[in-house]
Write a structure and sequence with these properties.
- By secondary structure, the protein is of the alpha+beta class.
- The protein has one domain: Aminopeptidase.
- The protein is built from four helices and five strands; from the N terminus they run βααβββαβα.
- β3 and β4 form a beta hairpin.
- The longest helix has 15 residues.
- This is GNAT family N-acetyltransferase.
- GO terms for molecular function: acyltransferase activity, transferring groups other than amino-acyl groups.
């Protein structure tokens, strides 16, 4: 599975921290327009971005248009480690060109290279196109995060 013409894969480096944060903001802003503050995402990047959490970029004309950031987690049923996708994002104007599929394939390759038995991620209910995409490529719901807001 390759990238469309003009697109390139680049391995992220520690100097990409600000760019990663920008892409995380884009992801959240797309579905939570009413929320203006996402400063907590900087804490997430500060806490988890390291040599053991690889990052890949898809670039078009030397400009990042997609990213994949991974880490690991522990399956709460089996207790086994698995590869976890912290973020997979493709800019709106570059979607439906196979870039998301390419990134998910990259995730699977990395997960297997780590000796992990599965790949996991969290997706917001509001992001139905992503839910449909993940189901199409073989993901199944294992648990639901439920929140009860207090007034």
């Amino acid at each position: 599975m390759g990238l469309p013409d003009g697109y390139q894969l680049r391995v992220g480096t520690k100097s990409d921290r600000t760019l990663l944060l920008d892409f995380m903001y884009k992801t959240y802003q797309e579905f939570f327009l009413e929320q203006k503050k996402f400063s907590h995402l900087a804490d997430t990047v500060a806490q988890y971005f390291s040599q053991t959490t690889p990052l890949w970029w898809i670039e078009f004309q030397k400009k990042p248009v997609g990213c994949l950031w991974m880490g690991s987690g522990v399956d709460q049923i089996t207790g086994q480690r698995y590869s976890h996708i912290f973020i997979v994002y493709v800019s709106l104007e570059h979607r439906r060109k196979g870039i998301g599929s390419f990134l998910m394939n990259q995730a699977e390759i990395w997960a297997k290279s780590q000796g992990n038995f599965q790949l996991g991620l969290q997706v917001f209910n509001e992001n139905q196109p992503a839910v449909n995409f993940y189901e199409k490529i073989g993901f199944k719901t294992q648990s639901l995060l439920m929140i009860k807001p207090f007034n």
